[in-house]
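Researcher: Re-running this chain for the archive, since the previous output was lost when a drive failed. Same request as before.
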Amino acid sequence: MKHLLRPLLIVALATSARTLPARAQALCSYDQCALRLHRGSLVQGLGGTRVARLRGWFSAPRIDLLENAGDSTRQHYLAFRALYHQGAKFRTASLALVMATAITMLTNPHANHYYVPLGLAVVSIPVGNAGYERTIEAWDHLQKAMWFYNRDLPRSP
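Model: Regenerated structure tokens:
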């Protein structure tokens, strides 16, 4: 009988694990579980337990706490990820244009016409600016997701 109960218990725990973060938020007080930004990381609680590292050129961090939270939190978190990825694409394209400018200038330094490198440099400015704007908008959505997450935490007695 014992050998039958163990697999059933494992299956029951595995299927209920998906809903655990939302319930864990309800059991956690504000002081223990509130999210905040600290030195390039998302930390939780007074102790500052790191939840996610927020540095990265290409992809936004996956933050399970925000992804499994309430609708408003999840909506802003998903917007953060989408905008962060768009910003990364624009920043990468801008960097590629700047590198192409440098390569073009260095391969033919005595040319009398610099139209191609000048054009590449000029195009890199609005592309980089678009990436910067999307990244700033992404950070705004992350701040809103954190606010909604923290708002739903029960206050300490």
